[in-house]
Write a structure and sequence with these properties.
The structure is a single chain. This protein is an all-alpha fold and 78 residues long. The chain has one domain: Serine Threonine Protein Phosphatase 5, Tetratricopeptide repeat (Alpha Horseshoe), CATH 1.25.40. Helix content is 83%, strand content 0%. The protein is built from four helices and no strands. Helix 1 packs antiparallel against helix 2 and helix 2 runs parallel beside helix 4. It is flat and about 40 Å long.
């Protein structure tokens, strides 16, 4: 029973990692897109990559303060 939960957790981790990679690629085309930055920041938070999420916050705060604050709230919920 507990083994299945671990399997699903690993699957979710892999999906979040894949999403982050896809968002990183999209950002190469649109590096100042606040929505992409926000989504990437959230993906990093969910993947436990808080340092990377903070770097995204620093970029986002100059582009969209409201979304940056929302990301910051998510970072510190962890």
């Amino acid at each position: 029973m507990f083994g299945k939960k671990g399997t699903f957790s690993k699957m979710a981790e892999n999906l979040v990692e894949k999403l982050a990679q896809e968002l990183e690629e999209e950002l190469k085309q649109r590096p100042n897109d606040p929505e992409l930055l926000f989504k990437l920041g959230i993906a990093y938070v969910r993947a436990g990559k808080i340092d990377k999420a903070r770097e995204i916050y620093k970029r986002l705060k100059d582009l969209d303060k409201e979304r940056a604050n929302e990301l910051l709230d998510r970072i510190y919920e962890v």
